Amino acid sequence: MKNLYVFVLLFIATIFAPPKIFAQCEGITVESITNPGPYEVATLTEADGIRNGPAYLGATVYYPTNATGPFASIAIIPGFTALPISVSDWGPFYASHGIVTIIIGTNSLFDFPETRAMALIDALETLRQENVRPTSPLENKIDTEKFTVSGWSMGGGGAQRAAVLDNTIKGVVALCPWLPNPILNHDSPVLIFSGQNDPTAPPAQHANIHYNVTPNTTNKLLFEVKNGDHSVANSPTGANGNLGKIALSWLKLYVEDNDCYCPLLTDELLVNPPTASKVESSFECELVGIAENAINISVFPNPTQDFVTINISQPVHFNVFSTLGQQLFSGEITPNNKQIDFSNLAAGIYYLQFENEMIRIIKK
């Protein structure tokens, strides 16, 4: 009954919803993740009573004033010799979309990535304490299980290392990260932005290596900005605003656990983006309302490059849908013809439906 209900929802969404989106995700579109977002933003500093963390120097907290918590949060740190203002555009952007943001300085402008990692972890402690501070406007409004870290240059390397040191961190956004000989064995979903022409942290020596040494079991995405320099990701307006949209979708998907942002990445923002010179990804996501295969049906190989074989004992009609609910093709499989051809479809995630079952297929 549960699987039948799920399929009915998918069918209704396919027929009656706008062609670009499922009904349950209506309103979540590329156009809805603009800069700024829908919420008003205010700030807090140590003068307002926030904690003075010993591992960093100075902090500003950006938060939405007309949104309902509890909120996910992100801590951001600048790069070598840089001040917080170098990455400050990210604060009001995230907060205007309902993500509390703390941007910190460093005790020394010359701190290396490992020290910056500890500073980020200390900044998360400040948010934990802000959540229980009686006079704080964020009291009981921060979800302390939904913390993310981010940083630019050495700060980006520090963000990756923070996820290694603290396995409760739910996500990483590395902005043109600098970190030689990285050890990045963590399972926090990581988004890496890099600049094609970055002279300070050349992608071949840093970002590309960071992506490759991050475990394949970790959801990860590398977006290299065409003709981008070392500061191309210092603002959500980078790459004609695409960096903000990609970063926000990544955090909404993996930190806030909102699967409605999956198709924004897989079917729109990462499909032949004109502002990218390189995109690599190894991540899985699915749309809200899609059920995994709940009965014992053999489908192989999955992932596939071309054909999948369905182990059945009687003829059955099938439909193939995109992650947006669009019916792509249909047909019939029989005990003598059990294969379905996916070779003409682009790499991505699809849904195979027959009778009252829905099975996710990954096309490589």
How would you briefly describe this protein structure?
Residues 36-265 form the PET hydrolase/cutinase-like domain. By secondary structure, the protein is of the alpha/beta class.
Please, could you describe this protein's structure?
22% of the residues lie in helices and 27% in strands. By secondary structure, it is α/β, with parallel strands linked by helices. It has 2 domains: 241 residues, 3-Layer(aba) Sandwich (Rossmann fold), CATH 3.40.50; 65 residues, Immunoglobulin-like (Sandwich), CATH 2.60.40.10. The strands form 3 sheets. It has a 9-stranded mixed sheet with strand order 1-2-4-3-5-6-7-8-9, with helices on both faces. The protein has a 4-stranded antiparallel sheet with strand order 13-12-15-16. The longest helix has 18 residues. It starts with a helix and ends with a strand.
Number of strands: 16
Helix content: 10-25%
Along the chain, the helix and strand elements come as HEEEHEHEHEEHEHHEEEEEEEE
Reported for the largest beta sheet, the result is: 9 strands, mixed
Count helical runs.
7
Distance between the termini: 32 Å
Rg over CA atoms, rounded to whole Å, is 22 Å
CATH homologous superfamily of the largest domain, by name?
Answer: Alpha/Beta hydrolase fold, catalytic domain
Q: Strand content of the residues, in percent?
A: 25-35%
Keywords: Hydrolase, Signal
Pfam families: PETase (PF12740), Por_Secre_tail (PF18962)
Domain Secretion system C-terminal sorting: 299-364
Protein name: T9SS type A sorting domain-containing protein
